[in-house]
Amino acid sequence: MPLARRPDRLTAAALAALVLFACQSAPSAPPRPPATETTTDRAARVISALVPAVARQGEPPARATLEARMARFHVPGVSIAVADGGRIAWARGYGVTRAGSRDPVTPTTLFPAASISKAVTATATLRLVEQGRLALDEDVNVYLRSWKVPDSEHTTREKVTLRRLLSHTAGTGVHMFPCFRESEPLPTLVQELDGIPPAKTAPVRVEAVPGAAWRYSGGGVLIEQLVLTDVTGRAFPALLRELVLAPLHMVDSTFEQPLPSSLRGRLASEHDLSGALVPDWVDVCPEMAASGLTSTPSDLLRWAIAIGDAHAGRAGALLSRELATQMLTASVGPTGLGPFVAGDGPGFHFFHEGADGGFHSQVVYFPQAGQGAAVMVNGEAGYPLVREILFAIAAEYGWSGFAPRVVTTVPTDPVAAERIVGRYQAPYEGFVIEAEVRRVGERLVLEIPLLGTSTEVAFTSATGLVMLEVGHDFELVTDAAGVVTAIRIGSVELARQAP
Known about the structure:
- This protein is α+β, with helices and mostly antiparallel strands.
- It folds into 2 domains: 13-25 and 75-397, Beta-lactamase (3-Layer(aba) Sandwich), CATH 3.40.710.10; 414-496.
- The chain has 13 helices and 20 strands.
- It has helices at 39-47, 66-72, 116-130, 162-166, 189-194, 218-232, 236-245, 261-264, 288-291, 297-311, 321-327, 383-397, 414-418, and strands at 54-56, 77-84, 87-95, 111-114, 180-181, 283-284, 293-295, 340-342, 349-356, 359-366, 371-377, 405-407, 422-428, 431-440, 443-448, 453-459, 464-467, 473-478, 484-489, 492-496.
- The strands form 5 sheets. The chain has an 8-stranded antiparallel barrel with strand order 13-14-15-16-17-18-19-20. It has a 6-stranded antiparallel sheet with strand order 3-2-11-10-9-8, with helices on both faces. A two-stranded parallel sheet has the order 1-12.
């Protein structure tokens, strides 16, 4: 029996403690297309040549059409925008906004951007830094009026600062937040920070020495949100529109929560792992800085292009070159001040992922080449699909250092395969992560509802496996007798459950 749909919101990027975005060097860039070729030709090639996140050594890369992969992952609708030469080259919608309907996804169909909100919010914070209203390295309690970061043994010498909050090095807890339905009472921001009902999460507290280590913290971004509103006296959605959305002409984006009724007709509907429509699906996100943005791929690219322009020091950019450089420089972990960063030289790029209920999204941008893309989908199992689309775009446009992993797999011993079949579970940040490994014919399939993941897996060693459609590794934990007692994904160990 498949596991139930996950009830809570969780971004793939937020689970970097479990797994990290991985890619290998891509082939050298292909020749530029002839002048007579249109963007329609390039878009057609992209959607006809999707490739999975993992390629097996010695085998030709598997290719599939977008339509086929949407069916595989039970995703009703997809929206894509591509940037080339520092501008949006094309944007297309595919499929429908709601399963069973004929309402097409278009470039202006709205999707929850979830944790991509963090990177956009960081941009607003840096604008206030540039205006002299905030300082990156000041104790945030200097700015907070309606709540204070409680003192602890961890803050005796080192303090929580905006630089540390934006880079997830402040030592704050609460990785993620649950969904609220419109029918539920909503907590205030202070109630969420203190873990007071109707908040559903623990209090946001400093759990490690600030600056000592990287730990992804949505709770830390809530502190950032309160700093912005306490300092400016402005409502958060209006402030973000003034500082970021309006200057970048992101006319199809808003941080308003709940989403205004005037925009709901443009919002794609949520679908579960099987592609079924989720009833009463409209989520409300009081944690607006962490996950409250509703947007489109084109608007997400407008933000990314603007950050790329600032990084290059172009005149009229939203941020100074100095601040943009700090924003796109990793320190202790894989994030700069907001976005994740990876690669170097021509392959240097920044990105952020988002997942909210039955939605997945990602924006990627290569500032040196002025190339990038944003993809948004409305299916719970759509995370691998987002990556496959990005890999197809990378191949078409010659992104440097962005391609599927190449792995060497070993034949699956039927006995070895059978011994890992079962259910696994682990507590995590007040939630319970459940996983199931089962046999489907000759294949092994791993399903993790909390991650929106259902993927074929293959052995890479006696105890190591790879998620073929996701690209992440995991390993078996065995006892002295060789019995599998758990599976380990990154730092999280999921214990095997009794049948």
